[in-house]
Amino acid sequence: xxxxxxxxxxxxxxxxxxxxxxxxxxxxxxxxxxxxxxxxxxxxxxxxxxxxxxxxxxxxxxxxxxxxxxxxxxxxxxxxxxxxxxxxxxxxxxxxxxxxxxxxxxxxxxxxxxxxx
Length: 117
Hints:
The structure is a single chain. This protein is mainly beta. The chain has a single domain, classed as Thrombin, subunit H. The protein has 1 helix and 6 strands, in the order ββββββα. It has a 6-stranded antiparallel barrel with strand order 1-2-3-6-5-4. A hairpin with a 2-residue loop joins β4 and β5 (63-75). The N and C termini lie far apart (38 Å). The relative contact order is 0.19.
């Protein structure tokens, strides 16, 4: 099991993802189960080796998040944890929106948290 402390909280988040192997060019479809600012956990029966570099696209709410990532842990026949590596500012903003919604915190009309700071 993965015991390393996390840099940011993970939130339940159900979405479809597409993983592309950067070396072979192969692709696989899977489901995201958890999402954080620094990575995600995807459910897939055939995991990739730890350290493998991939490109990931996550599709939710009619939008697409794209990033490069690296496999940081695997649970055989279950899924794997990916750490995001190269995230553009546009994709980071989308990820932040999804995480805010997933956290259950109120959102105001400007997309921020409800209430004053």
